[in-house]
Amino acid sequence: MGSIIPPGGLVLITGVNGFLGSHLVLELVEREYAVRGTVRRPESASWITKAVKTRYPTGKFDVLVVPSLSALGIMDALIKDVDGIAYMAADTSLNADHTQVIPPGLNALQAALESAARAPSVKCFVLTSSYTAAVDM
């Protein structure tokens, strides 16, 4: 069975510098998909960018710095022309104030789902969880 995403298709990975996101970008670039990744801070992208360029010099991989995925309209811009989305970004700060973690995370996810639903190019949306979902805080 083939992939829902066409060969060479563009995949958005949020949180591309995380454990799952970084592994997924390497797998997708190896299979010749184009990847658009997001990170919150520029310094977070250097190691994964270097890893992709070293392993796959002709691979198509771009990283965008997006401090907040819940910013108004940001997901519409990120999703433009994307075939698939792997939503992996999560707040792993372990902030003791859950109001600083949960509502912003839910708002960002809701914005991503709403943008994906409006985007004619999006064929699939994959949501992963964070290890913090299983940690007793």
UniProtKB/TrEMBL annotation:
One of its GO terms (molecular function) is aldehyde dehydrogenase (NAD+) activity. InterPro entries: Epimerase_deHydtase, NAD(P)-bd_dom_sf, NAD(P)-dependent_oxidoreduct. SUPFAM superfamilies: NAD(P)-binding Rossmann-fold domains. One of its GO terms (cellular component) is cytoplasm. Pfam families: Epimerase. Residues 11-130 form the NAD-dependent epimerase/dehydratase domain. This is Aldehyde reductase II. It comes from Penicillium cinerascens.
